[in-house]
Amino acid sequence: MASYWGKHIHISIFGQSHSTAIGVTIDGLPAGESIDLDALSFFLKRRAPGNSSFSTPRKEADFPEFLCGMVNDITCGAPLTAMIHNTNTRSQDYSKLKDCPRPAHADYTAHMKYRGYQDVAGGGHFSGRLTAPLCIAGGICLQILSRYGIEIGAHIASVGSVFDTPFSPLGETEDTFAQLKSSSFPVMDEKTGTDMKAVIETARNQGDSVGGVVECMAMGLPVGLGNPMFEGLESRLASMLFSIPAVKGVEFGAGFESATLFGSQNNDPFYLDGSTVRTRTNHSGGILGGISNGMPLLLRAAFKPTPSISKEQQSISLSQQKNIPLNIVGRHDPCIVPRAVPVVEAAVAIVLLDALLDRNTDQINKTN
Amino acid sequence: MASYWGKHIHISIFGQSHSTAIGVTIDGLPAGESIDLDALSFFLKRRAPGNSSFSTPRKEADFPEFLCGMVNDITCGAPLTAMIHNTNTRSQDYSKLKDCPRPAHADYTAHMKYRGYQDVAGGGHFSGRLTAPLCIAGGICLQILSRYGIEIGAHIASVGSVFDTPFSPLGETEDTFAQLKSSSFPVMDEKTGTDMKAVIETARNQGDSVGGVVECMAMGLPVGLGNPMFEGLESRLASMLFSIPAVKGVEFGAGFESATLFGSQNNDPFYLDGSTVRTRTNHSGGILGGISNGMPLLLRAAFKPTPSISKEQQSISLSQQKNIPLNIVGRHDPCIVPRAVPVVEAAVAIVLLDALLDRNTDQINKTN
Amino acid sequence: MASYWGKHIHISIFGQSHSTAIGVTIDGLPAGESIDLDALSFFLKRRAPGNSSFSTPRKEADFPEFLCGMVNDITCGAPLTAMIHNTNTRSQDYSKLKDCPRPAHADYTAHMKYRGYQDVAGGGHFSGRLTAPLCIAGGICLQILSRYGIEIGAHIASVGSVFDTPFSPLGETEDTFAQLKSSSFPVMDEKTGTDMKAVIETARNQGDSVGGVVECMAMGLPVGLGNPMFEGLESRLASMLFSIPAVKGVEFGAGFESATLFGSQNNDPFYLDGSTVRTRTNHSGGILGGISNGMPLLLRAAFKPTPSISKEQQSISLSQQKNIPLNIVGRHDPCIVPRAVPVVEAAVAIVLLDALLDRNTDQINKTN
Amino acid sequence: MASYWGKHIHISIFGQSHSTAIGVTIDGLPAGESIDLDALSFFLKRRAPGNSSFSTPRKEADFPEFLCGMVNDITCGAPLTAMIHNTNTRSQDYSKLKDCPRPAHADYTAHMKYRGYQDVAGGGHFSGRLTAPLCIAGGICLQILSRYGIEIGAHIASVGSVFDTPFSPLGETEDTFAQLKSSSFPVMDEKTGTDMKAVIETARNQGDSVGGVVECMAMGLPVGLGNPMFEGLESRLASMLFSIPAVKGVEFGAGFESATLFGSQNNDPFYLDGSTVRTRTNHSGGILGGISNGMPLLLRAAFKPTPSISKEQQSISLSQQKNIPLNIVGRHDPCIVPRAVPVVEAAVAIVLLDALLDRNTDQINKTN
Fold first, then answer.
1. Residue B212 burial (CB < 10 Å; 0-12/13-18/19+)?
2. What would the CATH number be for the domain defined by A4-362?
3. pTM, to two decimals
4. Contact B361 C364 (CB under 8 A)
5. What is the ipTM of this complex?
6. Which residues in chain B touch residue C77, judged by CB atoms under 8 angstroms apart?
7. How much is the average pLDDT of C97-104?
8. CA of C226, closest CA in chain D: separation in Å?
9. In B, which residues are within 8 Å of A250 by CB distance?
């Protein structure tokens, strides 16, 4: 088990889908940063279910309780812990679920790893609900980064085989980011959005689900975030992004496409824009040698379709040791991608704030 | 700087392209494991340059010197350090290179991060040459894993737009792995290999380079490797793979393709094969909830084209603060993908041995 | 800030003296361990204030709320979080305290580190109250260790200049440990205890405080816990013990006394007790080369006197930049040593459970 | 095994007493720091054996070879690796030693932990010789710290029952530090030094050894180094100091003595010295709440007597499972304390440089 992450911004996530509460402790936030709780609430609502017909109707408690780490909504240097109480917990009988692992879920691997002692209710600690505390941590980091000129935006890059207009690798405007953040279905091209919704509606009607891709960009990064080798920005970001349930692929800049290119196509030429060093293209996604180069950071994360579907599936009975069909009841997100957009923003924000603080250790700075 | 990685198998990589030596310290190898130095030598040669016309003709010293960590070629529990001396170091004048960063290299970001103090010769610590110590560590891990029934194989999945036959997600034979390991240009389909070589030859003749993808599979993994969230197998593997220079994308199982699928297509049905739980398809790539499920582990890493090309490129003079053209002299790999194949195997082996040891901590096992 | 610790048993402590709540998340507890909440409650009461006239009369809420990590009081593999609500928080005016740092407290260093944003109320995150979550974590570890044959006991070794009979380095009986655990003033020699209480009473009556030493022993340890160098048992234990507020010295076995001895006096001769290897003396405190040797683990931690005293002290006004006298009002523990006994036990238990799991990684153990 | 340490200054130590080489990789040194190799050589000679009649006559190769991490003796940001070749390695028959563990050495615990695969020659990885790479790392840190106004000094505080004049807790002069560093037997009071030498000579003549204490002080520290709880300065320093072979006790400021004091005696009153906040006494040793307060850092480490003595001792035969007498041949340091003085300085320097860099992460500092 390692539900903690980070060198400077150290987050420790706790909770199961149906435990008394879920939450996060963030250790290492600089003291003196005010947190706008209304803005945070707005951010968390973007991830919350039930915002539209495209997500599960389950209602989550709206807002976390802050247990410590702030004085008058200003960080005090001590670890900050936020908690969300779970309601209606553990009311069902989960013995069936325990015996018959759901395909593409963690039921079977958890059963083997924890020898039957895992919390099966609602997926336990593996539930997508645990992205809520990640969003609390990330939402706070987003506010702090913004204060230092770093803005993060994301959109639904694809649902199934419907692809949105991608971000311009050379950067997007603040207006574009603001518009995406205000939308419950953030896309660059509204027409595409309509097509995506149709695909999701079709999946829902067939008791099925569908996957998609989230594209994310960070602008205003200084040069020098990240390190060579194992703490390169790509390594850190990928490590965080693959922690989000259902992510099966991560790429930076031109990503997998760059593998099809010639060097003369893929290399980004340098030029001077006044005294600022920039590149004319941005196939690197703003990262060279694991280190930010001042151009926009660009990445994409691929989400598999929601594993929970109503269609009958084939599985096994662990107790009877035989193959059996499985019918999952209840309603589930036919596509988690819209709700995953703020989760990706949050994940990226945590990594970037950690990297921003890490850069401070490149030099000695002693003043008594 | 963080050129170290790992919780149980802790590797610390050192050296610059033209420093006296490069090498690696591996801390945490279990005592009592014999290391076959001939087999290791054979493995390292797969990465070494000059093996074929498809790589740079620079000759590397063939074999590392082992400084400590073994007694009679058997691990003794103490950290194992291996070193490769660099020859012909620092003979040139690198002042030009220092002033004019090469596109798609780390020259510029290193210059900014280390304020001009970085070692520019041959790319310094950012050089692809530093994958040699990674291969020493990984080659040792591969031997140990094999002893416990875990085999890792990889091939060139694509070069430019030429695609090899992919691995069967349900597993490959040991023969196939053995054949790939014995080849200087490991592909599943020889005809495809011929086409790939033609693409590389074209790139070379044009003073250009080309990218590609490496696909890697691990067979024989027990159920239960990895953890939920931040130490999930995908997070650990991606963190390691993105540490390899030029990797810009990583995906597991169906990866980005799974984002285009419906749940009913992507979910892998469980069934019993005797008393063994297996899945009928393997879109998950052998990982559910960050934890191995016993099916083959399958991943792909996308490599951008070698940044060093002979064609004239646009860059800047840092001292004169103006745009200037850049012509890189010397010969370089027109395609690093063939040599990257064992590097990916090595990277995966390190992570899996670390995860195998980590699984031991799931239970208390006290015997006096 | 780093209020987290551990490699396998990873604890993350949160809260300030007067925040909404304090607590701890424990990540890495093996699944399937039942937790006896009554026994835990009894253990926590040993640390709680107000148990006797020798501690501060402030009443703490008796028992933590468990937010997650257990199903039916059995660990489920997910992080376990326990929380204690603070009552009557933030009711006072702390502006005076903020301006005038208390001698021997962290007020001044916190003020400088957090630039005035620290939570001053009750000492904030530096409060001794934060040893309550440490005891929750440690109390759970103690239960698990006991199940595997490892018992930890501790007593008040000294208060001021009154010294209790030390533990026999070769081991104590379970009865002795049980008796110490049941006492609100745990000493080996009741007569000495009476003298200690008199010293504390004198300190209290003079508005003063007094320091002391806690001696702790762990029995039943297997050989092989710990590692050479930086993860030696002594290093890990000391790192944890010095995290307890007021600890200013730590020693193992003969400790500082061993510095006065000759080798022929200090070396512990080996002998065979049946097939068990033992030593005739135990100056090493059960640790050789950072690794447990199977003899009782023995250590002592020195606690400075409680910094809060009623007697007038000299301090400064930070705002007025001048020297001023300081009178601390309120009642405080005249001696924290009695309450520190279970805290030391808890600290030692966490480190030993971590080390017990770590030992599992010495060998590969693969079974599918 | 964990022979690595550190968050920002990450050291990884390798080698066994009789392996091909021993050494250290230091990852995280800021780029641009020039290293005075002559000064480093002088520092390493203070630890080297054979400097006087008070240490073992074995001659060590004088100076490390630097493999990487510097360009023209200036750090370049890449990991710095230094190596010392061992000469005359593995020439003897160590089978006897393997069978009969030496009292107070790590022979037995290593045998059990590594199941007989450990390198027994000369103590393997547990040898005091491994403090040489620690001194390389520390010697470099000392040079850098000095450049930023932080000076570290140490002396032999006691040998057996002979006690040197202690450091003044309020600070020593640079002259005093310089004098101590230039002496092969660093004491404050020469007369005491003569008495100590007599004790050592007596031990040697009797085939015995004797322990002692090293006292160390760091001056010029800024306020704010360290953190509350588990990364407090005391925790970090103790974790490092207990990694030095033979250390059995560590205390800060008044240490164990403070446990005998009343609060009114132990509390250090604050006062203003111009605009500088100071304390009138320094029982805290310069650390409050785990954080430096700007006063001199003061600590003591207790070293047990060298375990290797010529006098016959009692041990066991592991193969024959019986008690046998043991006679250790060869010459050994009758007292390691004089040579331990620079080792303690080195250890403290590494921790303090790490803490100095860590303090940079207390605030965000973004400049593009």
1. buried
2. 3.60.150.10
3. 0.97
4. no
5. 0.96
6. 362
7. 93
8. 8
9. 238, 249-251
